[in-house]
Amino acid sequence: MSSTRDIDALIAMMAKLPGLGPRSARRAVLHMIRKRALLLTPLADLMQTVAATARECLNCGNVGTSDICDICASEKRANGILCVVEDVADLWAMERSGTFKGRYHVLGGTLSALDQVGPSQLRIPKLIDRVATEGITEVILALNATVDGQTTAHYIADELGGRAALSSLAQGVPIGGELDYLDDGTITAALNARKRL
Amino acid sequence: MEWRDEGILLGIRRHGESAAILELFTPSRGRHVGVLRGATSRKIAPILQPGAQLSVSWRARLEDHIGSFTVEPLRSRSAIVMSDRQALEGMSAVTSLLIHALPEREAHLSLYRRTEALLDILDEYSVWPLAYLRWELALLEELGYGLDLSRCAVTGVNERLDFVSPRSGRAVSAEGAGEWVDRLLPLPPCFLGGTEAPDSEVAAGLVTTGHFLRQHLTDQTGQRPFPGARQRFVDGLSRRGGLAQRQHQIDQ
């Protein structure tokens, strides 16, 4: 039993990752052990490197390996337009689309009565500071279409006052979505935001 | 243990990767908490927004277990609150106050009916603020802290009742207020009846109900902070009331 103690510990650790349970963690670890040179060793090296260097961008809250992330440091990005997202995962989703060429600001959550998250726990003061100092003319509030997301959007709108033009993402039928499977709220939102062809 | 009922979704919290803990307000069991498996799926997540009317069944091995829910949507209110700020702030105030104020698993049927009716008129801007104020009065009543506005606590008269005592919750007339007038809470005419009231009058009424809710709920719930969502709703209403009042002055 003791000969597999480290492997068991690795499986137990892997099982804590999102999307993995004990069974899938066991399969993943076994696969890595079988492909030690190809997977396990490079993965271990990379994890060690990332553990030593990963940090939050001091400017926008994105995750990177330097104090200022690549997006904030890039000169090709449009200055003046800021996209506010709830989480780093949302920022990455926006980047995957490749549509937005401006800069980002990660709030680190949304206001939540149930979880007792107030404005002071979010990166809202930093956002206001950035709007004032970086010459931002438009702020896009790309927050989730949830009650908490919209509450946070309204709060930010109040805090920013008229310092920049504010916009939010549209709500409606997703691409590939079938009306029959949509909930009432989405259909109503889509109808309200209908556009002329 | 198993039961079926309908309920208003008050709040939802992620639990693990795909489950969530729901807080529901049901007619026969009051505020009730339970786990919903698969709550983050794309099919069900859109209907699990606070304020939604759901058909629920709850099951647990023992009655005092948290148990698990299965839910089906009856009525969604998310389209209204996503597109309308006042509705969003109002709905958040209602749900957060209920989470804060109600004890778990204690039926409050009349409050449930009032809450359902209130949420059903979220998009009727002309009547909603006053309906909300009356709902807060009903909430105080339901919790056992109802205000006595029938007659003046000092003189006994039932005319020109302009204030409420912050200690006893009883009405005080203009004559009875005397030198204590600065310490008394406002009693706007809409407390005593009528179907219309300007936002500024409703905002004054909310100062009074807010005082008693804070006072009694802080005693009841100890250190838990009073919900900020209610304050945001009151601030929004005061802002709009103020703007309307200024507009009225300009028009004159």
TrEMBL record, chain A:
NCBIfam families on file: recR
Domain Toprim positions: 80-174
Similarity section: Belongs to the RecR family.
Stored HAMAP family: RecR
Pfam families to which the protein is assigned, alphabetical: RecR_C (PF21175), RecR_HhH (PF21176), RecR_ZnF (PF02132), Toprim_4 (PF13662)
InterPro entries (UniProt xref): DNA_Rcmb_RecR, Rcmb_RecR, Rcmb_RecR_Znf, TOPRIM_dom, TOPRIM_RecR
Positions of C4-type zinc fingers: 57-72
GO biological process, one term: DNA repair
Keyword list, A-Z: DNA damage, DNA recombination, DNA repair, Metal-binding, Zinc, Zinc-finger
PANTHER family on file: RECOMBINATION PROTEIN RECR
Name assigned to this protein: Recombination protein RecR
Summary of the function given for this chain in its UniProt record: May play a role in DNA repair. It seems to be involved in an RecBC-independent recombinational process of DNA repair. It may act with RecF and RecO.
GO MF term (any one): zinc ion binding
PROSITE patterns in alphabetical order: TOPRIM (PS50880)
TrEMBL record, chain B:
Membrane-spanning segments: none
Domain DNA replication/recombination mediator RecO N-terminal: 1-75
SUPFAM superfamilies registered for this protein in UniProt: ArfGap/RecO-like zinc finger (SSF57863), Nucleic acid-binding proteins (SSF50249)
Alphabetized UniProt keyword annotations: DNA damage, DNA recombination, DNA repair
Annotated signal sequence range: none
GO biological process: DNA recombination; double-strand break repair
InterPro entries cross-referenced by the UniProt entry: ARFGAP/RecO, DNA_rep/recomb_RecO_N, NA-bd_OB-fold, RecO, RecO_C
Alphabetical list of Pfam families matching this protein: RecO_C, RecO_N
GO cellular component, one term: bacterial nucleoid
Function: Involved in DNA repair and RecF pathway recombination.
Matches recorded under PANTHER family: DNA REPAIR PROTEIN RECO (PTHR33991:SF1)
Protein family according to the UniProt entry: Belongs to the RecO family.
Protein name: DNA repair protein RecO
Lineage: Bacteria, Pseudomonadati, Pseudomonadota, Alphaproteobacteria, Rhodobacterales
Name of encoding gene: recO
